[in-house]
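Posting this for the archive.
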Amino acid sequence: MSIWVGAALLLAVFGTSMLSGIFGMAGGLILLGILLLLLPVGTAIAAQGAIQLIANGSRAFMSRGHINWRILAIMTLGLITAGIVLFTLRYAPDVVTVYFVIGLLPILLWIPQSWLALDASKPHHAFICGFLGGGVNLAVGVAGPTIDMFFIRTAMDRRAIIATKAAAQVVNHAAKIVFYWQATAVLTGFDWALIAVAAPLAIAGTSAGYWVLQHLTDANFKRWTRLIVTAVGIYYVCRGISLLI
């Protein structure tokens, strides 16, 4: 990776971390797409996990007072179950599948509440959220919409939603790094140095996004979350189609 590409990547880390700090998602979707242009799919997923672990970790720490620890614990059990299933199946991702899956994920945010009345505050729903969200995150690198559909319809306010989702993503990204650890062998010392430098930028971007979050209403927060993630999803579907053609 050249110096100029690395510099552009660092700017992208700041921007996507800020976006995630505001909406709790979308930033990871965009960052993964950038990394997929530069690295093999498994390596890109692991690298994105390392950067997002820092960004989500800082966001979870800043909003730790709003984390619902019971929901987080149950979701983690679901993630562990999904990880065992994928490991047993010897799952390995391919780039076209990754593009299509993450491109279609935003559809989940538009499903009417009357069709799927999902609520992460219910224990069995939290486990399913952890299993599906954690499984998709391990399989294609991101799972924001999968997790979000369990939260966006709850009675929790935006601060509790952001905090609990951030903490869950910390666990998910850590699991992703472990799952794809062998794929990181292609990363050079310069690549690892970039990831290290990206850490403070991810935290700075998250802090800026958290400040903006405090000035959003719950209605605007949920509406803009759907619109932004849907726009990103459309790009990924188009990208997947272009690779097939």
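Residues 8 and 92 are 29 Å apart (CA to CA). The radius of gyration is 17 Å.
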